[in-house]
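Second attempt. The first submission of DUF2098 domain-containing protein had a stray character pasted in from the spreadsheet, which I only caught after the job came back as garbage. Lesson logged: always re-copy from the clean sequence file. Corrected sequence (94 aa) follows.
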Amino acid sequence: MSEEIREGSIVRYSGTGTVGTVRVLKTEDDGERWALLDSTGLYYHLSRLEPIDRLPERREIGGRSLEEMEDRMKAEEERMRSVKMEDESVESGG
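This time the job returned cleanly.
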């Protein structure tokens, strides 16, 4: 490993690409070393973490920009409001 990982290091977990900042380093009795990441609240084995220079920007989610996702959420909220309004006027026979 070219750069030592320590508390405050920004790292990427090679298994899933999860990134975060190391909050706690822990060494087990058997010598295994673990790092707690702030982004997940989980411990990761140090051998599976790689230091990176900075956190990546989260501008796209599933191929869509943040703005597109916000527009889609607003449209869905509006659709749900209109369905609720229609539902309130339904009478049951019974």
